[in-house]
Amino acid sequence: MSSSTFAQDTPKQEVAQQLTNWHNGLVKGDLEGVLAQYASDAVFFPTFINAARTADERKSFLQTLIAKKPVAALNNDQRIRLFGDVATCSGSWVFDVNAADGSREKKPVRYLFVFEKRAGKWLIIEQHVSAFPEKSKA
């Protein structure tokens, strides 16, 4: 009888997958699934509000974002850096969201996620997302 082994993901692949899971949760409207990716003490600095330092503030912001039916296209500039059980993931994407008038609006943003591996799972402990200050030439 032969045994087969499966290659395990590297920590960089695990972190990249967590970011994908975060995005997919937004697209599916899975608020609880997205919230479960944050550590209880996480801090989130999104565009248009000062900060979301508590679980309730994160939930409120993410509910508003999910209501806009977001879909993001990652650019090819993602960078993941590892520091033991801490990892950073930065880059940019273009969010396609529902605008106030019901049309779709493209918003280029940059992001920085900081993950920490806790109890075997990469959790978001810090997050900053901001719109680019300049107008896109797209």
Structure description:
The protein is α+β, with helices and mostly antiparallel strands. The chain has one domain: Roll (Nuclear Transport Factor 2, Chain: A), CATH 3.10.450.50. The protein has three helices and six strands. It has helices at residues 11-28, 31-35, 55-67, and strands at residues 38-45, 71-74, 79-83, 86-98, 104-118, 121-131. Strands 1, 2, 3, 4, 5 and 6 form a six-stranded mixed sheet that branches. A hairpin with a 2-residue loop joins strand 5 and strand 6. The mean pLDDT is 86.
Based on the model shown, name its key terms.
3 helices, 138 residues, six-stranded mixed beta sheet, Nuclear Transport Factor 2, Chain: A, alpha+beta, single chain, 26% helix
